[in-house]
Amino acid sequence: MTQDGRAMLFGLGAVALWSTVATAFKVALGYMSPLELMWLASLVSWALMGGLVVRQGLLGEALARGWRTAAWAGLMNPVAYYLVLFAAYDRLPGQEAMALNYTWALTMAFLAVPILGQRLTRLDVLAGLIAYSGVWVIATRGAVFDVAFADPLGVGFALVSTLLWALYWLLNARDHRPPLVAQWQNFSVGVPVLTLLLVAGPGLQWHGWAGLGAGVYVGLFEMGIAFVLWQLAVHRVSRTAKVSNLIFLSPPVSLLLLFLIVGEPILLSTLVGLVLILGGLGLQQWQKSPAPAVQESS
């Protein structure tokens, strides 16, 4: 299998896990505050990453180097990104927050030009515009010229989260730390910061086993395993745009789970938007990959 082929498999694995987390976010936030969920999920993810680091014999390397990068990366992700994202999900319907958050792939593809020195083809641009138009139809529930979001501040949080997420992965594209080491170090920085914020703020309360289970699920899959898979994909792909558009496969499953578990109706505008999203993805994947623009380390 080619390097791009392996990257695509890693990306698909991450997308499959991300398809479930919109529902997990809404369920968990029904029991606890965004900061409580952030702390619990980060702690679970930190423990998972630490166990994997020890199992693969990387603890010595993790303790010896890489902390200068982790100092800023950990504050950016998990702390800043997830606090903003959870605040968006706490204020908006899951369907709307999810759709807005998915626009980060477009941001990532375009920011890769000045940050990584990569080039966009005309088909990349066209595919991005088509896919973004579909996300916009979903986010506005069909009122594309008369936007009326449920909560303007929540929409602002969702859009800021897309910028933070895209910047995080692009700035880490030249990170020479092994993916597991990088994630564990980042969470080693993030968990103490979140603990201080929680102690100084609302504190931690017991919200029942259902709330605990939802928080643990977010930590294991959204903030743990999916992170590692996506980082492996970004480090191996020849063009960031090729992998980033894979995330448009996730909305159909996410919307179905929100309908079945949370009870959010699937709107006609959502179905129209998904046709545009998948059409844009198909157009982007149709073109052949050029030679790698940046040599990434694994």
Explain the overall architecture.
This protein starts with a helix and ends in a 12-residue tail after the last helix. The protein has helices spanning 3-18, 21-29, 34-55, 59-64, 67-91, 94-101, 104-116, 122-140, 152-171, 179-200, 208-236, 240-244, 251-262, 268-286. Helix 1 runs antiparallel to helix 11 (208-236). It has one domain (3-286). The model is unreliable at 288-298 (pLDDT under 50). The protein has 298 residues and is an all-alpha fold.
Short description:
This protein has 298 residues and is an all-alpha fold. It has one domain (3-286).
Q: In terms of topology, how is this protein built?
A:
Blueprint: H1 3-18, H2 21-29, H3 34-55, H4 59-64, H5 67-91, H6 94-101, H7 104-116, H8 122-140, H9 152-171, H10 179-200, H11 208-236, H12 240-244, H13 251-262, H14 268-286
Helix pairs in contact: 1-11, 2-11, 2-13, 3-5, 3-10, 3-11, 5-9, 5-10, 6-8, 6-9, 6-13, 7-9, 8-14
